[in-house]
Amino acid sequence: MSEVSSKNKGNKPLWRSARLSVAPMMDWTDRHCRYLHRLLSREALLYTEMVTAPALVRGGALHLLEFSAEEHPVALQLGGSDPEELAEAARLGEQAGYDEINLNCGCPSDRVQSGAFGAVLMQTPELVADCVSAMRETVEVEVTVKCRIGVDEQEPEEVLPDFLGKIRDAGCRRVTIHARKAWLQGLSPKENRDIPPLDYDLVHRMKAAFPDLHISINGGIATLAEAKAYLDRGLDGVMVGRAAYHQPADVLCAADPEIYGTGTVSDPGGAVRQMLPYIEARLSEGAKLNQITRHMLGLFAGKPGARQWRRMLSEGACRTGAGPELVQEALAQVETRAAA
Ligand SMILES: Cc1cc2nc3c(=O)[nH]c(=O)nc-3n(C[C@H](O)[C@H](O)[C@H](O)COP(=O)(O)O)c2cc1C
Question: Which residues form the DUS-like FMN-binding domain (predicted)?
Answer without folding.
Answer: 22-331
